[in-house]
Design goal:
heterodimer; A: 296 residues; alpha/beta; Rossmann fold; 6 strands; 9% strand; B: 314 residues; seven-stranded mixed sheet; five-stranded mixed sheet; 13 helices; 14 strands; globular
Chain lengths: 296, 314
């Protein structure tokens, strides 16, 4: 079945809404897998890792107006792990920022859907990303602008392991702790796998929460399951109760989530998906989707 | 230059310009990397603490914070030494500010050899090459403190990113009571038919002196102050060399990537012209007093005269 995505946004019952967003995230995985297979290019691992986080943000958390993408009081979300572009575009399309049919133009010549997000081409994209390490600083700038202009929007940045490798990210983390802008929230998609291999081999980031604490950040008291919409919503219950800024939440996720032979496997960071792989992966994703349908 | 010439430092003019603009431009914010007292943004910071952000010694972060602010309608000026701004913030200037055409003003202080005593580690001789290579970037090199003020004000009213190069030291005031600097327009300083000299920045005073010296020898220079390197005022340039047939460029920058190559690139397409240049000869300079340092590394009125005569003689 295909859910009416716009109806989910206004669904009043929290558990019913969570189940629907959980389903939606998996449905988007199927769509992303199909696009990446058809195009023979794009990044599966990081896109699948962020499905539930992005679905929760776009269909519940973010105060946005798809028909007015430049509304000054909108919440900002910077997807600093720009290689998750295909998942981001799928969210934006289904949320109403542009036609869903346009998703099939991903990475095509003349398309508005660039390989990595481009804010001047795609409605709803807050910042062009792709080169890692920019999101933290840019989002800090947005949060400082809110303070200066007396606006009450939230500034969120979604970072991944690769982002956390970049020195600039830590410059931004230092500066954010100095300026302490209200409603600045870092969301870590912590799948612990990078392009070349496990983060523990490439560049270990643990103890990540302690690092943020040492930088004087307000760190969520526990890590959350980044593949459970119900748990993600709980994390935002905590975030919304805070008055010490900036805030960081670490979500334990799995790169390539949803396909057994792709999960936690760095080889599927950005490898083209061939016909055989696509068929096997799709079967697994649809099997899970059917399970999720029962909970609706 | 004679001892009676009035001098002013561009960096001082930069600081007072920010202060003067602040009440009229509430969107103006200033970011600095722990050189606010050097680059003269400190007074703005004291007067407008809410609009001033000292980001510590972290240029990349500063540039991207400014970019984020610019997406929200603020008008950021980012200020630090030109060398560090254009090389430690390069990815941010390219991928965040220029790619997205954000209206950030880059104030590159202590530019050229003007941080003379600190030595080659602090001297900016590649900044123009870096900034010219950035799509959507406008590159302005004011000739004195008056033009610096005009360039900053103009840049803050443009829709795209602008780089403004700022000298540390007092230099001759050349353009008081003159029409203001126009971004994208060459200023004609002298009419002549024998050769064109194109100059930007601090050496403008040297080129004026050299042109006067050449005139005493019967050589009439068409003297162009090319304060905007990008976009280049090609029309004025072509009109000048169509008359003179010879072009000499003068700049306080490595010979690669700055004014010389900007002019050569334009003329080779529009009006191939025999050229020579006065610039730093693809080397690093050293510590020393500013004017002596400039002279040692090739920038002096005498050198301009020699090159001009050689060009005419050849």
């Amino acid at each position: 079945m295909t859910l009416d995505a716009s109806a989910i946004v206004v669904e009043p019952d929290r558990s019913r809404k969570a189940a629907r967003m959980q389903y939606l995230a998996q449905q988007f995985r199927v769509e992303v897998l199909d696009i990446l297979h058809e195009k023979g290019t794009g990044h599966w691992g990081g896109a699948a890792s962020a499905a539930e986080l992005l679905a929760s943000l776009y269909f519940d958390i973010l105060r946005i107006r798809p028909d007015q993408p430049d509304w000054p009081d909108r919440d900002r979300l910077v997807v600093s792990k720009g290689h998750a572009s295909c998942m981001l575009y799928t969210m934006l399309a289904h949320r109403g920022f542009f036609p869903v049919e346009e998703l099939s133009t991903f990475r095509d010549l003349d398309s508005r859907l660039q390989g990595h997000p481009c804010m001047n081409k795609t409605p709803g994209v807050e910042m062009s990303t792709g080169a890692l390490g920019h999101g933290m600083s840019v989002t800090l700038g947005m949060a400082l602008a809110a303070r200066l202009q007396g606006r009450d929007y939230w500034s969120y940045v979604l970072v991944g392991d690769g982002d956390l490798n970049e020195g600039q990210t830590w410059e931004g983390i230092m500066a954010a702790a100095k300026f302490k802008p209200e409603r600045l929230v870092v969301l870590v998609d912590y799948n612990k796998v990078q392009l070349d291999g496990p983060s523990d081999e490439i560049m270990p980031m643990d103890p990540l929460a302690d690092k943020f604490r040492a930088f004087n950040w307000n760190v969520a008291p526990r890590s959350y399951d980044g593949h459970s919409v119900a748990d993600i919503l709980e994390s935002f219950d905590w975030v919304r109760g805070q008055d010490e800024w900036p805030v960081v939440v670490i979500y334990r996720t799995h790169k390539g989530r949803g396909v057994s032979f792709m999960e936690d496997n760095h080889l599927w960071h950005g490898a083209p998906i061939d016909d055989d792989t696509h068929a096997k992966a799709r079967t697994e994703l649809l099997s899970t989707l059917r399970e999720l349908e029962k909970a609706l | 230059m004679s001892a009676t010439v009035q001098k002013a430092a561009m960096r001082d003019a930069f600081g007072t310009t920010l202060l003067d603009l602040a009440p009229r431009l509430p969107e103006l914010v200033v970011l600095d990397c722990d050189v606010a007292s050097s680059c003269k943004t400190a007074a703005f910071g004291k007067a407008y603490p809410d609009r001033f952000f000292n980001c510590g010694v972290a240029e990349a972060n500063m540039v991207d914070i400014a970019a984020g602010m610019a997406t929200c309608g603020l008008r950021p000026v980012v200020s630090t030494f030109a060398l560090f701004l254009t090389l430690k913030g390069t990815d941010q200037i390219r991928n965040t500010v220029c790619y997205n055409r954000l209206p950030v003003v880059f104030a590159g202080g202590y530019a050229g050899l003007s941080d003379s005593y600190d030595g080659a580690s602090h001297q900016a001789i590649t900044d123009l090459a870096v900034m010219r290579a950035m799509p959507h970037m406008t590159v302005v090199v004011p000739g004195d403190a008056i033009e610096l003020r005009q360039a900053i004000e103009a840049a803050l009213h443009r829709p795209d990113p602008t780089y403004v190069r700022i000298c540390r030291n007092p230099t001759p005031v050349l353009f008081e009571d003159q029409p203001p600097l126009e971004i994208g327009r060459i200023r004609k300083l002298r009419d002549g038919a024998d050769l064109t000299i194109g100059v930007c920045g601090v050496p403008t005073a040297m080129a004026i002196e050299a042109s006067e010296s050449l005139a005493r020898d019967g050589i009439e220079v068409d003297l162009l102050e090319i304060s905007t390197l990008k976009p280049l005022d090609v029309e004025t340039l072509v009109a000048s060399v169509s008359k003179t047939g010879l072009m000499l460029t003068v700049e306080e920058h490595n010979r690669y990537g700055g004014l010389t190559e900007a002019v050569a690139g334009a003329l080779s397409c529009e009006k191939p012209t025999k050229m020579d240049y006065v610039a730093i000869e693809d080397t690093f300079a050293e510590s020393g007093p500013y004017e002596e340092l400039l002279a040692k590394y090739g920038l002096s009125p005498r050198r301009i005269v020699e090159k001009a005569k050689a060009l005419l003689g050849g």
